[in-house]
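Reopening this ticket.

The earlier resolution said the output was attached, but the attachment link was broken on my side. Pasting everything inline this time so it's all in one place.
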Amino acid sequence: MKHFYHTCFGVIVMKKKKSKTRVIRDECNEILNQIPHNLTKSQYKNIVRRYVEYCRREFDVQNFEDCKGYIQTYCDYLQNQGYTTSTIHTYISGVCKCWDVPLKLIEKPIRHISEYTKGRSKYHDKYRTATDLAAERWKDLVQFQMLTGIRRAELSRLTGKDLVFKDGIWNIFVRNGKGGKDSYIYVSDIDKVKPYFEGKGPNEKIFDEALFKNDLNLHWLRAKNAQLVYKLFEDRIKKYPTYRDELEKLVRKRWAEGNKDKKTGKPKPFPEDSINGKYVLRGLNRKFAIKNKLPFVYDKLILKAVSVLCLSHYRTDITILYMLYI
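Inline output:
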């Protein structure tokens, strides 16, 4: 649809009126633009664009508020279309964020860790690497990633000043990581990691940007590091029982520093039940572990330590996902 208006020079100009779909999307973008992290913002905008188009196509919604009532219907639609459980959770999470709807109110298919496929194995068929992790040209990058497990984008930004000693241990300081958060990543072997930083200026990159123009399965290496650190903590507790208390204190401290409520700025309540006892896999996850000769019982405190100190996401269920990589 077009409408006419007169310019100051008396010339009639034709201007295309925005479609209702475009108007709704613009309102969504205004909300999502408040997200500080560009990658998350971009992902959510794409998710919401699909949802708005669905609502316009299927229900002829007229405005932003009308879309709010079809989130559950959209979730059911995605499931009927054959989308994976993980993808459905991702899509619905973005939609709920935009319309400020608690995610727990939407009935979603149960997500089984064993069904998650991203980078699950070194050469997973669906995510097969175009280059070889064992190739000489990638040797330094691969070894560093195996020892630290830092995300690809975070790796590319590391500089000479990012190796720091804090809380009695060596860490790599990650600036503006996932979700726009800063974090300290535990260094399991300082003797092997330190040489990467030696001779580098404070603002000099550790790795050349050209090293990241590849299809290396760095996500698999991130999981391997998580498994390595879990075993390291487990062995240390067996050898030095008092280390368990030290590890718990460190986990609580880092939780309070890095896991804060966005609105209040205060640390989120620490989940006490997440560090006591054992985490026992059940159902499909247990079958997957047994089939692949992996443990199906884990120490909750060590899982939380890996989550907070290494993976920097504060979620035990995601840590279990990394324990099941093969």
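Reporter confirms the inline version is readable. The mean pLDDT is 88. The CA atoms of residues 163 and 194 lie 8 Å apart.
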